[in-house]
Structures are given as structure tokens and as C-alpha cells.
Amino acid sequence: xxxxxxxxxxxxxxxxxxxRLFRRAAGRRHAARSAGAAPGLVSHPEVVAVLAELGxxxxxxxxxxxxxxxxxxxxxxxxxxxxxxxxxxxxxxxDWQIRDPMGRPLEEVRAIRDEIxxxxxxxxxELG
Length: 128
Hints:
alpha/beta, 4 strands, 4-stranded parallel beta sheet, 4 helices
């Protein structure tokens, strides 16, 4: 079982989508969490809405701060945006440059969701 940590700035959008889409794709084979360098207070409502379209409930998500405990837990660290994740020399690292969904229209947030889902599916396939 691999443990995957998705990271972005606020843990309100990209990393939340990564975590929830990964959980759906991996089932019980792997585990996922998410965190932010500067977590916000609540998830972006447009992100919760587009996940709900796929049957994924993210209404219970509470943004959390990236810390050493989470980094120690992870085998794989996925940074979904630039410059928010500290160096992780002993971890498998994936750097995804994903647009921020905050405040974007739903059709753009759906496209971001679908891009993350595609990358998540590739990651799950790599992990086996």
C-alpha cells in the first residue's frame, strides 16, 4: 500500500480534488491525504460542486496545514502547484502544475477536475 499526500496552497481546491479522486480510483489499495502550505478556512464551493457531480462528497473536508507528520506519513508527495512543498528528498515527488480553480466558472473547474482525474488515474496505475 502506498500513501499519497496531495499539496497545494490552501488545501481548498486542487489538493482536495486530488485526494478525493485518488481515493475513488485507488479504493483500498492505497491511501491519500491532502494539506496546504497556507490552508484556508473552507473548501471552494465550486470544487465541492464538481466533485459531487461524480458522486464524491467533499462537504466534510476541513483544510489542514502541511506539516512534518503528514510528510513523514507519505510515500508519494504530489505538489499540485508551484513552490508550496518543502524539499522531500526521501519521497517520490510529483510536481503537477494545475490551474487554481478558485472563483472560476464551473465549466473551467470541471476541466481542472478532469485533468486531475486523468493524472490520478496514471498515478494509481503506476503504483499498481
